[in-house]
Amino acid sequence: MKWLQLIASLVVLAVLGWAFRDELDFLKDGLSTLRHADPWGILVVVLTTAGAITAMSEVMRLLIRSGGVNVPLRETSAVTLASNSWSTTLPAGPAFSAVLTFNVQRGWGCSVMLCGWFFVLSSAISTMWLVMIGLAGVLFLNADMALWSLVSTLLLMLGLSAALFWLTNNPRRVEAWLNHQRLLKGTKREAVIKQVRNLEEVHVNRYEFSRVLVFSLLHRLLDMVSLWACVWAITGDIPALRAGEDQTTTAGIAIAYLTAKLAGSAQVTPAGLGTVEAAIIATLVAMGMTAVDATGAAIIYRLISFAAVTAVGWVVYFLHYARKGMTYAALSRKET
């Protein structure tokens, strides 16, 4: 069934490409612009993409260190790259990516609770910063992006992050409160209290939590800067606060970045193939760029941030994890 979903998605892309083949001349022109891309801009794209991966890896390192598990950055970088490749390539990739990360972290000595703490908190913080980028676009560009939906999501993620931080530093208070609750009795109460006591494994102070926030934000910003550099590489002009003729602004790129991430999260096609590129192109055009330049920028961004990173991730996986028995088939059996 999962493979059928993948094949169906690719068939839909092929059919759409064939149906609109006479209307997509800008794709051909966009590809031709790659020959004249600014090499310094391309270098910035590569560096910021690598920096974004490193920042994401540092978030993992800091969060699991709060549970007393110390691993070097190269190890968290390896699993970040490998799991990203699983997520963007395989059917039901995000689920198997999480399984791979979980098994690697367990191999480091992380408890089940610590692994869960990492997944929930890192996702909440990352989503929070993505919503902040959207809010910035609404405030500075008057973009039509469902303001109250963004605000409610932001408040939810802020509340979740704050609650998790408070819980890890006050498990005894939570346990005392649970002992006075009449709704929970017997084995149910004991089970909940046991999970609360597990939170004592995690010790994160405000300084360490602030570092997690900073590196998570850095991951998002560097990823967005890589798209900004793609526009620079194609147009030869550095995007700023004001747009010239056939140009966009930094705020416009921020909107394109958020739109692309939302399109990719829908998982309509593997890794958002086709939908992410279309979202970037359409948004950049709406923000002032020509379709040809927007296409060139989108292609460079996806070639480096998706194709190149995925390829590197697969190399890391086969060299670092496949030989340890962490294969797709083996982890599929564990998931089921």
UniProtKB/TrEMBL annotation:
One cellular component (GO) term of this entry: plasma membrane
Entry's transmembrane regions: 40-64, 114-140, 146-167, 271-292, 298-319
Membrane topology term: Multi-pass membrane protein
Superkingdom classification of source: Bacteria
Pfam families: LPG_synthase_TM
Keywords noted in UniProt: Cell membrane, Membrane, Transmembrane, Transmembrane helix
InterPro entries documented for this protein: L-PG_synthase/AglD (IPR022791)
Localization of this protein: Cell membrane
Tagged with keyword Transmembrane: yes
Protein name: Membrane protein
